[in-house]
Design goal:
Layout (H helix, E strand, L loop, with lengths): L3 H4 L5 H7 L4 H20 L2 H8 L5 H23 L31 H37 L1 H15 L3 H12 L3 H28 L2 H8 L4 H38 L10 H8 L8 H28 L6
Helix pairs in contact: 5-6, 5-13, 6-7, 6-9, 6-11, 7-9, 8-9, 9-11, 10-11, 11-12, 11-13, 12-13
Length: 323
């Protein structure tokens, strides 16, 4: 019997399988193997890895992840793509939606609204991320040390945390920023310091729970130094719930940053900022509501998305809940 596949090099894969002197079971096994390889490649993709972690399983979480990614992308590359100057004043004031050269119109000083919205995302996100990072470092450090050390150290640190929590957060932020003067640096420090106590409380509870576990007791009996126990043993085991809480804290930081800019204590003009844009446009709320609605809606959506993403991360990284 001649080999048909060898005599006809133009035969395709399916024709070759049909022409080869093999059984139908072997062909089906080969096809199943090919399908299985394709499914394995899909399971190794980034989306499949996120699904295995339980991230983005609900539609609000998926929408929130996409929205946050879009906002960050706009803040990073948007100013490079918008040719209009967000601070340049022209005589074309209060142009409506869809005006030639001004897709979202202009404000009362003739500045392009789209350019101001795009450029205004970066200052807000910078303050939100920087102050949240500061709060995470300070709060997690204080909580770790208090939960691990216990005794007098814990009492002193947590009484200071309780004293900070006794003040409403927004009042504490206003006091800190007003004392240091308006500006980006004072805003980052004020918001970060005001949000650190909440993270410290959570970190202390989680660290105290882990300190009582056998692997920490064994590490201490083995002579492992305290910094190494905190950083290499306890911190990785409380990272899940802490990351989720930090993301939710990001929404509070963004709200504080926008609110303080609205009050004139945050990012100063002429730098475009969503909070200041709301304050500047409220005079024209009835004649040109877009000047208030657009920046306010973007800020609100960012805050809501951070909360949904934080909930999603908490469910995925700490499914049994925290103390």
């Amino acid at each position: 019997m001649s080999d048909r596949t060898g005599s006809d090099p133009g035969l395709g894969t399916t024709d070759a399988l049909a022409a080869a002197p093999v059984s139908g079971g072997a062909i089906r096994s080969a096809l199943r193997g090919r399908d299985r390889d394709g499914r394995d490649r899909e399971r190794r993709g980034p989306v499949a890895k996120l699904r295995r972690l339980g991230i983005g399983t609900s539609w609000p979480a998926k929408v929130s992840w996409v929205f946050l990614a879009a906002i960050v992308l706009v803040a990073l590359v948007g100013p490079l793509l918008i040719s209009a100057d967000p601070v340049r004043q022209t005589s074309s004031a209060m142009l409506p939606f869809g005006s030639p050269g001004h897709l979202l119109g202009t404000d009362d000083l003739g500045r392009d609204e789209l350019a101001r919205l795009v450029h205004g995302a970066r200052p807000l996100l910078f303050v939100a991320f920087a102050s949240t990072a500061l709060a995470a470092v300070v709060g997690t450090g204080v909580g770790l040390l208090a939960g691990y050390a216990g005794g007098v150290v814990e009492q002193v640190l947590m009484r200071a945390v309780d004293l900070a929590l006794a003040f409403p957060s927004i009042l504490l932020v206003i006091l800190l920023v007003a004392a240091a003067g308006p500006g980006t640096t004072s805003l980052v420090v004020g918001v970060g310091v005001s949000l650190a106590p909440g993270l410290a409380r959570l970190a202390r509870a989680l660290a105290a729970r882990e300190t009582a576990r056998d692997y920490i007791v064994a590490a201490r009996l083995g002579g492992t130094r305290t910094p190494r126990v905190l950083v290499q043993e306890i911190l990785p085991n409380i990272a899940g719930p802490m990351v989720a809480q930090v993301v939710m804290t990001l929404s509070v930081a963004a709200g504080f940053a926008a609110g303080l800019s609205y009050l004139g204590l945050g990012i100063q003009p002429p730098t475009p900022d969503w909070g200041y844009m709301v304050q500047a446009g409220q005079e024209f709320l009835y004649s040109a509501p877009r000047l208030v609605v657009l920046p306010a809606a973007l800020t609100l959506l960012f805050v809501v998305a951070c909360n949904f993403v934080g909930d999603d991360l908490r469910d995925a990284l700490d499914p049994k809940g925290t103390v």
